[in-house]
# Entry
Amino acid sequence: MNLFIIELRKLLALTKADPKSLAAGIIAPTVILVIFALTFGNFVALKLAVVNDDAGGLGAAFQKAVFSQTSPLSGESYFEAIEADTDEAQELYEQGRVNGILTIPEDFSERLEFGEPVQVLYAFDNYNTDMAKNLRLYLDEGIFAFYQEYMPGMEIEVRREYAVGAQFDWFAIIAVGVFMLAFLMGSMFNFLYLLNKERVHATLSEYRLAPASLLPTFAARVVVALLAGAVGAVVNALLVWLLTGVNLAYGLLAILPVLLVLGVAFVSFAAIVSLTVRKFSGAAMLSMVTAVVAWFLSGATTSVKYATGALLDVALALPSSYGLSQIRAAVFGVDQSVGGLLAVDKGWLVMGAYAAVLAVAAWFVYRKRMGGGGQQNSRLHAPLPCR
Amino acid sequence: MGTLRIIGKELASVKENIPFNLATVISPLLFLFAFAVMVSGGITIPVETQPASSESAFLQATAEYRAPDGTPYLELETAPAEGAPDGRSADRYIVEAELSVDEEEATGAVVHLVNDVNSNMTKNYANRLTGALVDYVDAGRDAGTVEVVEQTRYEEDIPWDESFAVSTLVFGAMLAGLLFGQLSMTSEWENATAKLLVLSPRPAVEVVAGKVAAAFLKALVAGAVLVGVVALMYGRALASASWLVASLCLMYVVFASLGLALGIAVRSTMTAFLVSLVAALCLWVAGGGFGDLSYFGETAQAVGAANPATYALDVVRYAYFSGVADPMPLVVLAVGAAATLAAVCAVYARWTRSERAVS
# Structure
């Protein structure tokens, strides 16, 4: 216990002396959060150049129907009209200043009044299937609204009902994921940074002389890493509250144990990778990148519910998927278990197993590299030249 | 000659830290695979229906409702006869009164039962239902319908995962440039050879040119691996290899220079790595790599205008998928590369004269 406290004090002193190990865990996720806020927190209408050549009045009615439909995502219109003639519209389109051109022909009203079908011309950039899908379906929203108002005998009724108690902005859902990432990145980075710092200062070799087990020192490193992660997560939670109004403190009791178990798993993973490979920095880097990639695959931007095939298999194999679903359930007060796929008991089993196995493995690697067990890692202990 | 020696030294130092150099090549690959898997489902999403699609002509038509390339918008699953949807359930379309469409009238009633708290998914399901309804009405009558004649930029919609993979090349270029650039300085700090740089009689321009050129060459190798993997995954022939090479090379110069400046400012490889990773990820998202910039607000678009990733994404997409050949993004990148290189020379020269250099 004594060794644990001494090591803890030393690591806390190191952290205090060089707050980079904290700042990096705070700044990096903050930047990520702000960028997601700027993009996924601020959807606007897509710009369409509209060329209305219609000689009658229905063209204007059609234009109004197309440009007045609002998205459940943002509450904004799907499209913003940029009125132009044919040449101007083409120029705007070529310059990439509009997403497409909607041209309403001269005989639009006339044909409709005679009960005939009409054609509109729709030029757009289909540079990927998702954007093309949106541009097509957003226009269909306008066409359907036009049918409902102007098509004779049109009496199709569409209602929207809710089986869930609330609707949240996409960014709010992503932001809660970034909060978890902040904790994991902060923890992992602190562990790696302090270890690297001691490597640079060549103080790691003193562990070889330790007369007692190094387990308390390993535990102290993990605890300090988790504390550092918690600092980053608190800062991030405040930002999430500021940007989305979502108060993570309400779910604190449910969130803390999840973060604790996930933190142990991820920090242990970082320890294994960085201590196994001879060169520390590359391995440490790879372990952090893996954590960010795992975060993306854990339903960070869209629920695991919509995952199929390989993506679903990967997501279900990651402890962070279960952790994220439990955190979101606690914060939003809605079932996020995806019908049992990410059930709470199953989640604890998966997260607990990861944490236990990785922690034990990390301890063995740590003991082997730092202490007297087996072959020493001479590079890890070697002082840097000319210090 | 001096520059060549510096390049040689920097390249030889790869063997000093092979894991770091390998990790720089592997990291973008990990992101590439992750993003490819993330969007592998394409634009098809599952939806529950009541009744079973076999019992409703409208639902049968909805099952066949597809994008022009034949990809279905929806994958229909019959909802249980009773009970509310659980967490696994997708949104549900309930046909309360079967749709009937002829030249005289169109009747029926459909309920969209939302079962996700994410408003983006609510939008997606609502759009698909509306699209299916318009499609059904258009198929059932002529009178008063509006046919959309499409004039798309590309003959076929570019598959989402392929478009994503191509945009990952830009992320990879930024990350590789930053990491190799920063390593060229942080390795000096860690090997305690920074002092030698300060004492070197070589002009700052020569040293910077050597370091940036070496980082550029390493990034080129990382980029070639990434381009090769994308080619293996999708097998698409390049529309313009020269545009791809030009854009990636300019990105390597910009980001190797920025990385070098980062390495001067942040002595720790670990810290510089984290800054590089986050910077590359954020610039990529903010440049329209994760979702088109036109979806986002004015601030995002203003930030995008100052972001090299925005221009590189335009050029790389053109290089793969053709479209409108606009040289402006390449010009902006070239100017940016020259300006960044000049700026890093100034930063380096200033650093060599500062007290901090020998502290």
In short: The radius of gyration of chain B is 27 Å. Chain B touches chain A through 124 residues (CB under 8 Å).
